[in-house]
Amino acid sequence: MVTRQSMETDMTLDTATESSAIPEVPEPDVHRWVDTVAALTRPDKIQWITGSEEERKEILAIALANGSLIELNQELRPGCYLARSAPSDVARVEARTFICSREESDAGPTNNWVDPAEMKVTLAAHFDGSMRGRTMYVIPFSMGPVGGDISKLGVEITDSPYVVLNMRIMTRVGDEVRERIEAGEQWVPTVHTVGYPLVDAAGNTRPDIAWPCNDEKYITHFPETREVWSYGSGYGGNALLGKKCYALRIASVLAHDEGWLAEHMLILKITGPDGREYHLTAAFPSACGKTNLAMLRPTIPGWKVETIGDDIAWMRPGADGRLYAINPEAGFFGVAPFTSEQTNPTALHALNHDTIFTNVALTDDGDVWWEGMTPETPAHLIDWQGNDWTPDSGRPAAHPNSRFTVRADQAESISSDWENPKGVPIDVILFGGRRATNVPLIAETYSWEHGVFVGATVSSEQTAAAEGTVGALRRDPFAMLPFCGYNMADYWGHWLQIGKTLGDKAPRIFQVNWFRKSADGAYLWPGFGENSRAIEWALRRVNGEVDAVDGISGHLPKLEDLNVTNLDISDDELQQLFALDPDAWSVEADLTEEYFGMFGDKVPADLRDQLAQLRARIAAARG
Ligand code: GTP
Ligand code: SPV
Ligand code: MN
């Protein structure tokens, strides 16, 4: 039985007036804001996160003591721990994610919307006393290097020690950030509770559990007042509020207002055999290969790839007119399953130490395992739910959305530029998704406007990264469907506007698809390190070294220009990878028209024009 903790706190909670309302506008003074949240949530204790190592150890000890973390074999994996979530709390919950803009039309048809005042009343009822019996941690954090031109500050209040330990890896936290906020720098307030108080209003206590959460969940964003309130989940993007909630949903709104881009993109640096350096970003939907590509090991000789980011890019036009990108994060929250020596050795090696694993399987010697990790499956495991597991159990040992949290600089591929506060100049942007049919391995778009059209119309088979039907084909424009904090059609307009600003200094835009399948359902393309072959072609296009063939979906490689040396692929498979069926594309065009219909007259004229041009190319291909 856990009893009420003693009141060792920076502030005397007794002096805070109890409140059951959330202010319309958050208190600008961070200390007063913390007071307002404490008055509502009623924690036993408030602890500001300083970023020190002693503090990390202290919070780790708490997480170990209450079973939130399990210590792994410290000889095999020093500094590594395993968390097992509640089976009901394993991924982002898109149906419970809300954009609470004042006008419904500003959230747009792809977001769930609730009036902000109404949502604050609902939230207040849930947050009221939600931290009773717990410590409220106040985490000052920076997205991007502290003090960098493109970086931004935030504060996350949370009652989860697991969240604190993860935020310390995923962002830059502590005193330096707090001091900047106290000195008046802009910051975004974010509040998180697992929604599992240990004491009720009458003073009755209950014991803590390994993964506290609530059946009801609210992941809410207030774009005008730039706030995040998250209730009921401890998992990933629902709870690590610097990531999707701030760096994408709120930041996309800031970016729209201020003339920059907040994107669901990896960032990498490539050096060619001649020593020339390029930078590339790529937007792929969740669990569609960003981490893999960010850590690419090229199979073609002479090329080198270094990692800058694996999930989010903030990009701005620089003084020289080019587009510069930073990775606002400090760590990777990556998909574990199918990370192996074959698919992503760099990620695998990064996980050798100081890593938090969530929902992977535990081996008998206290190590971790997941599907696809090793060629041989262990004879016995403890699965992600803590049950005995054998290969004939008939269920995965690791959850399909099990993840690792690791500092970015533990990747041996990390670029020396990854914390460059100015960012890196982008040469190439890729848009991709999981498409079994129609979309070729690589194609270059005809123009920036065509690139925006391709980004806007991406569809992809859904993955386990969010609750929903895995495998269902859905539109995921710019891989931002779950992450755009405002009307998607206005976002497309913003991209078109940025293209006008960049002019001929704009990056070149390509569409890629590593996931095309043959009629018998097998992947046509080996993927992973071999993706360097498609990227090499893109860079040769940038350099004006190769001509292309004009196709329905874009400029396609002449097959002799794609480097397939030492690759086991038949001519027939190559043809299939690039095949464009006018009838199938005509159906795509019809579906796009229907999709645009959702957004009414907000769809930019340039995109309607691109659809007409696509139809003209389809007609021409039919002859
Ligand atoms: P989020 O972190 O959810 O945003 O996703 P991500 O895009 O970083 O996903 P990640 O790179 O972790 O993708 C994981 C899944 O994509 C795994 O199932 C990989 O095996 C698969 N994958 C990645 N690259 C390739 C590829 O080139 N070919 C194939 N067939 N699968 C790939
Ligand atoms: C994604 O789903 O795109 C992720 C994982 O990167 S999460 O942080 O949970 O959103
Ligand atoms: Mn992501």
Descriptive account of the structure:
This protein has 623 residues and is α+β, with helices and mostly antiparallel strands. The protein folds into three domains: 4-80 and 91-258, Phosphoenolpyruvate Carboxykinase, domain 1 (3-Layer(aba) Sandwich), CATH 3.40.449; 262-330 and 418-622, Phosphoenolpyruvate Carboxykinase, domain 3 (Alpha-Beta Complex); 331-410, Phosphoenolpyruvate Carboxykinase, domain 2, CATH 2.170.8. It is 27% helix and 20% strand. It is built from 16 helices and 31 strands. The strands form seven sheets. Strands 1, 4, 5, 6, 7, 8, 9 and 10 form an eight-stranded mixed beta sheet that branches. Strand 19 and strand 20 (368-369) form a beta hairpin. Helix 2 runs antiparallel to helix 5 and helix 11 packs across helix 16 (605-622). The relative contact order is 0.11. Sulfopyruvate is lined by residues 92, 236-237, 243-244, 286, 311, 333, 465. Residues 92, 236-237, 243-244, 286, 311, 333, 465 line the site of sulfopyruvate.
- Helical amount among residues, as a percent range? 25-40%
Low-confidence runs (pLDDT<50, min 5 residues)? 1-12
Domains (count):
3
Question: Within the CATH hierarchy, at the fold level, what is the topology of the largest domain?
Answer: Phosphoenolpyruvate Carboxykinase, domain 3
Structural class: alpha+beta
Hetero groups in this structure are: guanosine-5'-triphosphate, sulfopyruvate, manganese (II) ion
The whole-angstrom Rg is 24 Å
